[in-house]
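hi!! sorry for the late reply, been swamped w classes. u asked for the two structures so here they r. pasted raw, havent cleaned anything up. first the sequence of the first protein and right below it the tokens
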Amino acid sequence: MWVIKHFSSFLSFSSSNPRTTEHSIFRSQEAIISPMITSIVSSLIHSKRRRRMVIELVPPRLKKVWKEWDLRVMVLLSLLLQIVLIIMGNRRKYSHKLWTTIVVWCAYLEADAIATLALGVLSNNLADFYLENSGCIVDAKTELTAFWAPFLLLHLGGPDTITSFALEDNELWLRHFLQLVVQTGTTIYVLVMSWTSSPLSVMFVLMFCAGLIKYGERTLALKSATNETLRKKLVKPSHGEFSEQNFDMIRREKRDAGYFVGVDMSNIAKEFPLHHTVFSDYNLPSDGDKLQVAYALEKATLSHILDSALNTGLRDRVHSLFRNMTPQNAFRVIEMELGLIYDRLYTKATLLYGRYIFILRLITFLLTCFVFLFFTFLHGKDKYSKIDICITFLLLAVGIFLDIYSALLILSSDRFYARLNFDKKVSTSKSRICSQPSNGPRWSNKMCQMSFLNCFLKLQWLRSRLTCERLDELLEKLWLVRQPEEISEDFQKSVFQYFKEKAATSRRENNSLQGTEGGDDWMVSEAPKFEQDPAKAILFFHIVTEVSFYLDGDGEDTKKQSEIGRQISRYMFYLLVKHPSMVSVGITQVNLQRTANTPYEESHYHSTEKETCESILGGYTGGDQTLLDAISYIKRVKQEKKDLKEKWMKLGEIWMDIMGNAAKKCKGREHGQQLRNGGELLTHVWLLMAHFGLTDHFRLSDQHHYANVIAK
């Protein structure tokens, strides 16, 4: 309002005094702008004075040491981060440990920042040198430190074991491309400013080429792992107006004309190429046979991750293969499939097998080796600082070591073995090798556990001593997770048999999973309906499972049945708390916290889980509806007086159904995200269901297959 008022008065004055309009405008602008300029200048002077005061607090000796060592420290730190990334980047594929994730995350973020900062310091040092020594050629120290610039460009290219920390990083490939342009320009600026026509300048150019190739590889790897690029690779050529209706019409016409009509399965064979011995021996005795299946299914698995549709012909062929496998072989194949997908999404693995990329990588390695030898036998190194010479040798030696280490990782990888043995473009009958794939881990093979009851009993001491709410919540989530449990062969067998029977009894057109909302089972019919909120189903049955376990006791006759149910129950509750996006959460954190506070309040009066359960079951009259429903359900089930063994078998089946529904509803992208943290059991169950045809990734008919017309 103040602006409008003064602006209108200014207009009225200007219209009544036309001769003084121009002069008045100038005076009003001067009155507005002058204070602004004065304020900005005074703030700049004040900030400069404050900065000078802070700098004056630092002892001159310390400033001199930092001036001499700042670039050296940043270059060495950048080199150290590259070593950490190449070693730990692949480790996160099979490690569920929090410290692994933290180390990789910090190294991934800091590696680019440190290398970029070091390049900035280099260019700034060169500018300062020419300001202080106008018209002079750079001295020996400045020339050698400028030679470190292409190594920093090499570091920005990153190791082969990690190109992105999360899937979102792949989508930001354009940002990395812009950084590539800017940092390349900075390196060229350093080259021009430090050029002396000496052998060191020639070596600078050679290492610059190597660094540019490496940085370009990373940007290309990020782009190749974007959703858009991956979907383009999965798109099939169009067959014009050919459709399911046309296919049926042609089939009827040819059949009426006296022809035998079959379906051409050659396209399916191309999508799922397998040696005939795999189908003749479903036991898959060797890891090489398992890897052949996993490699053939990679494209289908990638389609699942991208939530793309596949044809039913491929589904039936995969289903026929998996239903004849042993549970251990099926989970081993799935483990290999997801390992290949991890390499495609988070590393440079798929990029390195291209002919041109291989040639460029070989050039990079040879250039680095040549520069190392050239610098070793370079005359006149006495004029350089011994410390700087040691750092230069370290940069060259570690660069060569990292390239050799990356090559060894590639040679021992599943993808290299598969391409050498099973890729028609590469392998021949003569080139097949006899060795087996690596026996190293491909995922954590563990499932985290979180108990509704005893985890909150543990918090009595923690909550009484923490006053910071955010710290309280953070430590709760870290501390509540129990020690992850190894997934046993018995557990794999139970999961495999359950979904195998599901696939055999229910086809896609009849709904593959009925879930916990239907059926004639007495335990299911007594439970509330959770069609709209699967998270409440997890919380409800988790309370039922935990309370029932402590009240029923751990008898020898029910131990096997109760163990699987409890493991899935605690695992699904862990996902509900730690990864709610994977279980289609509809329950709010407030409701979950309110329900969770009940055992905590009861635990003030009882020291054991059994006493707490008895107290909740006997006298809880609070306002949490989920807990009230669970207590009522436990009492009704108890009144049925069913055999405990049968009861735990039914609970185990319910948990299998809940886990299957959660896996089916979880988006493929969420499953792909978890591969970088050691993987989740839910992802392996989801892929097993997909291979059994129990997910929504298949079209009802395949429109790209033509009819074979054979005369009788």
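now the second protein. again sequence first, tokens right under
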Amino acid sequence: MRCQPGEATTQDYMHAKQRKQHAIDRAKRFHNQRIRSKLCSPATSSREWWWTIKKLTGGGGSVNIPILDDGRVQHVSAKDKAEAFATIFIQKCRVDDPSQPPPDIPTITEASLQPMRFTPRDIKKWLSALDTAKAMGPDNIPAVVLKTCAPELAAPLAKLFQYSYNTGIYPTMWKIVQECPVHKKQDKSNPANYRPISLLSIISKVMEGVVDSAIKRHLLTNNLLTDAQFGFRQDHSAPDFITTLVQTWTKELNSRDGPEDLEDEEGPTAPPIEMLDNVTGYEGTVAGGDGNYISPPVHLSDKQERPQPQLEWRIPSITEDAAREALTQFAAAHCCYSTGPARDMVFQDLTPFNMYRYRLETFTESRLTEWTHVPFTGQSVDSNAYGPPPLPWDVAVQNPPMFQDFTKKVPVPHTAAVKRCHKCKGRGKYRCSQCGGKGKLKCLSCGGRGILRGNKRCIQCGGRGKKRCGPCLGRGTRTCHVCKASGQLLFYIQLTVKWTNNVFEQVADQQIGLPVTLFSKVTGRNVFADESYQVYTIVGFPDSLIDQISQQGVQEHQEKFGRTACILQQRQTIELIPVTKVHFQWKGREHSYFVYGAENNVYAPDYPSKCHCTIL
């Protein structure tokens, strides 16, 4: 049941309404007076004067984007332009490998980030500091409203931010971004020459600012930022970075003069050759690189000439209706082609051709050996005490499915041995080269003095003039990343087995005027297939070019892989690709085109009805 307002309530409402109208009138008069004073003031620059005029007349903020051309299609309407920009901007913001796990960062402090507390005082401070010249986001709430009403909005926004943080729910409107394309270089009609300007909700940026401040305080308080971080940090500038870079270069150059320093720091990356055992059957195997190639065993060929199958293939052809339909679809796929010839043409002749594609697949296996090592953590050691190691081609490895590329790495049995780490010489750590083992570095913000300009204490080093070394975390030593602080390595010979499907493919070109490169996009019908350990060459095929191509492919693969790899299986196929040359008459003139492939693709370089339009 709805309550009727009383006389006192009605009077209060009318008084409030009158006060609101008076406040609006005063604000309008103040705004007009401020604009008038700004335009008449001699202190107003010409740029600011014209900017104000554009804002008053509605001329500011408009963007005139010409017709866009990305090299494939032209975008004329506003919707097409927006979709073109969206495609370009998404490609630039895409992560290269989303499945890549984040880096493993060691724990250097037990302190954790405290739960966030959003207070009205902090929110009011951020709202009052907003730049009213910034554009508003998708929620259409301007910064001037938030800044003016900061005292009233601070408390409700603090509750809203706290609720969002506690529940983990972020408002959908705050996730929406308005992208404004801004031209940056060269041709304005190319959408790739624009960069995006992202407009977010100002309220969401206020919450992000509070969270960002808390995270920065946590990082600075616990000294979690490395001294090499100069970007987006207070009291860190480009000259500081250049100074650090020059110091690092100078120290590295000076360290080369004293080999005794290198012995105390990092050792060689690859193990020395004297550390590697001499294993029978694996002479010359080294560590790293591309591995040591192992020649395959020699097998006697069991290939025997078999009688060729006598097959007859009917030359496929297409009907006039299919030829007309193919040309109609071809013309419809081109914006400047008329479908008139396909609709009104008179067929003269349909000449079929047999085009064959020969394909030879040779599935090979190759083996490489190399010394490798892992940190020794007490795992079992398969040494030569268990017996002599098998030869590389005697190591049993399960084959993958035929004609599929695959790589597998397995340890060679009875080749393992535990040795001292060559990187740290068995110590598990080495002296830090950045700080020279001292664990401290001179503070770059204050130059090691501990005070800044105006006799203020440096907040980066706490007035001490030195900061903790970032690479070694103040310990003066760094953990050996080769042995993982164990001081020992487990060496063994690693066998890399590679299965490769090598393909030889060629089309028998009959020189009928149809480029053979077009056949890579169409399919045909398999008319012959043969698979064995080593296939024989084709003899007596109806098209003699196939005999020559088959002989070339088999000989090429035999010479290329017969000695460098072990041939496991070969497969050869012949594919019949239907081709029909269509002769027709249109408007009293003779024309022709090709229909090829099972897809009925059309090749018509001299299509009779093309418009020569020019897009302005």
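hope this helps!! also noticed smth abt the second:
DSSP finds 13 helices and 19 strands in the chain.
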